[in-house]
Amino acid sequence: MVGDRTYFTHSSGSSLTSVAFTLSEGKKRAGLSAGSSIPKGDKPLLPLPEIREEAPFDRMRELDRMIRKLSPTVRQVSLAWSSGSRETAIVGSINPLCRLSSCSTRFSASVVVESGGALHSGRDVRAFSLPQEEFLRFNDLEDVAREAFRRALLLAEAKPCPAGVMPVVLAGAAGGTMIHEACGHSLEADIVIKDYSSFRDCLEKQVASPLVTLVDDPTLPGLYGSYPFDGEGTLSRRTVLIKDGVLKSFLTDLLSSRQGGFPVSGNGRRSSFRHPPVPRMSNTFIMNGDGDPEEIISGVERGLLVLKMGGGEVNPTSGDFVFHVTEGYLVSRGKRSYPVRNAMLTGNGPRVLMEIDAVGNDLHFDPGVCGKSGQQVPVTDGQPTIRIRQLVVGGSEA
Asked: Among candidates 99, 97, 139, 106, which has minimal Cα distance to 125?
C-alpha cells in the first residue's frame, strides 16, 4: 500500500524463493526499490494442512434412504458435506507476524417433493468454524435433513400469499439475511468512499429505530464468520455499527481506513492469497431487545410472519431491495395462520431500519457465504424476532 493505492501480486509457491520473488515484483509495481538479491530456498514456509478425517458418507447414505421413505412425494434428496483446514501466515510492515491454523465444516440438505404436478424444494444448512469431530458433536445431521424435508412439504401445502402493504415480523430463525444484504454492505467503508452507500455522511446521525443496535463481531467462538485476525494481520474486534439507532462506525480494511479517515476495524478480508483484502462483514447481527416473540406477533392484526428468507437483489446506493421468502405464514388477529408461498418483500433498507417497532429477545444466528469483488467468504448473519411496521409484500393470491 503506497499512499491511497494498493499494489497486489501473488504466487502459488510457498518456498522462500517464491515468496521473496513475489514481494520483489510487488515493490516494482509500486515504483519502489526491489531491494537486495532474492534469497534462495525450496523448503515451504508453511506446512500443508492434513485432512485426517473422512466425510461421514455412510451416515449421509442412511439419511438419503430415510428421507425418501418418509413420503412417496419425495423426488430428490441432495446432501452436501465440506470440511477443511487452512494454515495462514501474514507478515506485514504494519502488523507483526500472524499465524493461524483454522478449520471449518459445513453440511446442507435439499429435498424436492411433488404435489399436484408441481415441484417444491426445502433446504437447511449448518456451518461453523469447527473441526469435523466437534461439528458432529454439536449438530445432528438428521435434524438438518428432516428440516429440509419439512420445508419442502410445507410449500406443497401452502396457499398463495396475499399482496399489499402490511406489518412483517421477521422471526429470529429468518437469520438476518435482510439486514446483511439491505444494510450491511452499505456499511462497508469502500462502498461508502466510492459514494455508493445510502449511509454516506450519516455518522452520528439517527439511521434506525432507537430499538436497533447492529454489531459486527468476528471474535465470537465457532461462528462461521469468525477469525482472530483479518487478511492483513489486523487483530479482530467487535465493532458497533449502529447503537440505539445512531450510526457509529463503518467496516474497514487498512486502505479504506486511510482513505476515509475511519478507525481500523479489522475487516480486511480475502478469500485466499490470490485476492487483495477488501472490507467485509464477519458475524453481523442485531442485538437482543426485551420483547417476547409471541407478544410481538400478537400485536399484528393482519400481516406476514417470515421464518426463512431466500435470495434477492439489493441496490447498495439507494438501499432498495427485493427478497424472496422461503417459509412464511399469514398472521391474522395476532395469531399465526396458514403457510404461504411465492411471497416477496420489497422495500428500502434505511427506511426499514426506521420502521422497526419491536425487537425480541431470541437472537438466532444463520451461516452463509457472502460474495463481493469476485471473492466468497464465510459469514454469519443474526437477529432476534423483529417487527417492521409496514412493508410491501408481493404475492400470487388473486
From this structure: 106
Q: Distance (Å, rounded) from C-alpha 62 to C-alpha 67?
A: 9
Which stretches within the chain are classed as H helix? Answer: 16-29, 57-70, 132-138, 141-157, 177-179, 189-193, 254-260, 293-298, 349-355
**68 Rama sector, left if φ>0, alpha if ψ -120 to 50, beta otherwise:** alpha
* Rounded Cα distance, 95 and 230, in Å: 11
**Are 128 and 207 within one domain?**
no
Q: Over the stretch 177-207, which tens digit does the pLDDT of each residue have? A: 888 888 899 999 999 999 999 899 999 999 9
Asked if 352 contacts 182 with a C-beta cutoff of 8 angstroms, the reply is yes
- What is the spatial distance between Cα 277 and Cα 2, in angstroms, rounded to a whole number? 15
70 vs 112: CA distance, rounded Å: 12
- In the chain, the number of structural domains is 3
pLDDT at 39: 47
Dihedral angle sign, alpha carbons of residues 359, 365, 371, 372: positive
Provide the 8-state DSSP code for 37: P
Q: Which of 4, 144, 105 is nearest to 378 (CA)?
A: 105
**Domain residue limits at 225:** 164-394
Tell whether 19 and 105 lie within a shared domain: no
Kindly report the CATH number assigned to the domain that includes residue 116: 3.30.2290.10
Q: Which backbone phi and psi does 258 adopt, to 5 degrees?
A: -70, -45
Question: 3-class DSSP state for residue 151?
Answer: helix
CA-based nearest residue to 346, from 373, 315, 376 = 315
Cell numbers placing 294 = 409471541
Residue 87, CA distances (Å) to 46, 131, 278 in order:
7, 14, 20
- Angle at which helix 57-70 crosses helix 141-157, to 10 degrees, equals 30
Sign of CA dihedral 84, 280, 12, 87: negative
Task: List pLDDT tens digits, range 43-77.
Answer: 455 555 555 567 799 999 999 999 999 999 999 99
Q: Could you give the strand order of the β-sheet that contains 98-115, starting from the edge strand earlier in sequence?
A: 74-90, 98-115, 118-128
Cell 437447511: give the residue.
Answer: 124
Dihedral angle of Cα 232, 237, 242, 247, to the nearest 10 degrees:
-50
Answer yes or no: do 366 and 280 share one domain: yes
Strand 283-286 vs strand 118-128: parallel, antiparallel, or unpaired? unpaired
